[in-house]
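ENCODED BACKBONE
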Amino acid sequence: HGSMQEAIDLWRSALTIAEEVGDRRLESFLLNNLGEALTAVGDRRNAEQCLLDAESLAHDREDRRVLAEVYRNLGVLLTAENEVTRAREYLDRSLETARSMGAQEAVGLALRGLGELSGQTLFIDSGSNGDDATSFFKQAIEIFEKIGNEVELAHTLNALGTYWLERDELGEAKATLERARDIFARLDAPAQERLNETITEITEITESIELASQQEEAEDSSTTEDTVPGIPSANAAAMVAKLEGLESPADEPSEE
């Protein structure tokens, strides 16, 4: 987290100056950025406090642009904390605020957050969250394609691919992650390397499953036991863990 810690130090220094000169608009903007960065490095307690302070300042100024971002960042943070109800409330607010301004990038980001939340809560209850997650992700992808934002498009494809992987949908996961990988490669972003590793692992697992299936058919086995499982849980967990880190701002295109 070296570069992220540098960003955190920078935001904190700038925030001190904004507080000293009494620039409330800049203060709310910097608190939001600091909260987002602290979330990325796992300091969720301090991140939430920064974001709540930013929300208060932006609300007093009726600054919808900052509010849309703060609501989204709080929703993402609360999703990670598994506070489903509060996360949904903030993400819905972010989406509503962004749409009221016609801010398409902010709309796409809110939709991606809702997709990630819906994908996570799919394992908590038995509602229609699976369909919701896919819908949210695809709406976000369509927006980023339309406005030409390749960085957020790649991150959203990565999020959707991770969702498919968690559901053992190997074909969908591989195709989606390959699209994300190709965009990251064009942008010369480091995320492409981790995606390559995951795609290779998916390919190997798929081939193993197909081989096992062919062997079973050839042997005309009479057993009723399922000998062709989906992704072994250890492999799935390892691959998803690699992908979860790709949403970090540290994975933006390198400047070299």
